[in-house]
Design brief:
Helix content is 37%, strand content 18%. It contains eight helices and nine strands.
């Protein structure tokens, strides 16, 4: 095995163990690009509120979920995309909700600026900081955002998320989002570390069994890995 292969193997093993030297290396790499620096800044400045820090997204990322939400709420007036990243999700939603006011909330300032430019021609769309979200919505999307570093969690076989992304943080955000839903409104989720039906907001929600499945791994309120591997992705507020 050549030196490069050995180094890659050592980095992979160290990343699984969350070795300090690998974490320092990964942090140093973030300084190379504007996107990386923005991720690092978001992590440091907004550490109490940030969930997923990776801005990766693309148009039509979850077409089955988007289509089902549009079928269930064809006349939605206000829609929130929580954690909209660089705005591609808002474009996908506009294709299905032509008359709705669509608001994207994004904590990463660089991603937010990109999203604002991308949606400049859509007069019924806006992008704001999460702290600026107000009012009630007919549909709220929180897709691949109520989690932290899912690829590392899978790769490392993590069994306890308490030190990485505790249930309390997830639970607080779900409560906030449900608080912004009108009665009968939809909460649409995908790629969450925890189950919405185990959140403290669950009594206000009805899961829709015919919604597209959301795949695990999932963790429980005690932050420990569950055997459950599938859950509904859409919930209606009672």
């Amino acid at each position: 095995m050549d030196f490069g292969a050995q180094l890659r193997s050592a980095i992979k093993a160290g990343r699984k163990r969350r070795a300090a030297w690998v974490r320092l290396l990964d942090t140093t790499r973030l300084f190379r690009t504007g996107e990386g620096r923005a991720r690092l800044c978001t992590r440091l400045v907004h550490r109490q509120r940030v969930h997923q820090t990776a801005p990766d997204t693309w148009e039509e990322r979850y077409p089955e979920l988007f289509d089902r939400a549009a079928q269930l709420m064809p006349n939605a007036r206000r829609i929130l995309s929580f954690g909209c990243s660089t705005g591609e999700e808002l474009i996908s939603l506009r294709r299905r909700f032509g008359a709705a006011e669509i608001i994207g909330a994004e904590i990463n300032s660089r991603s937010r600026r990109v999203a604002v430019r991308r949606l400049a021609s859509d007069l019924q769309a806006s992008v704001v900081k999460p702290t600026a979200v107000s009012g009630e919505f007919d549909v709220i999307f929180a897709l691949a955002v109520l989690q932290r570093g899912p690829h590392w969690v899978d790769e490392a076989g993590v069994d306890d998320l308490s030190a990485h992304y505790p249930f309390a943080k997830f639970d607080q955000m779900v409560r906030e989002l449900v608080g912004h839903l009108r009665a009968g409104g939809l909460l649409c989720t995908m790629h969450t570390h925890y189950l919405v039906e185990q959140s403290s907001a669950a009594p206000q929600l009805e899961s829709l069994s015919d919604s597209p499945p959301m795949c695990g791994p999932f963790f429980g309120p005690d932050n420990r890995r569950l055997a459950t591997q599938s859950a509904p992705s859409i919930y209606r507020k009672r």
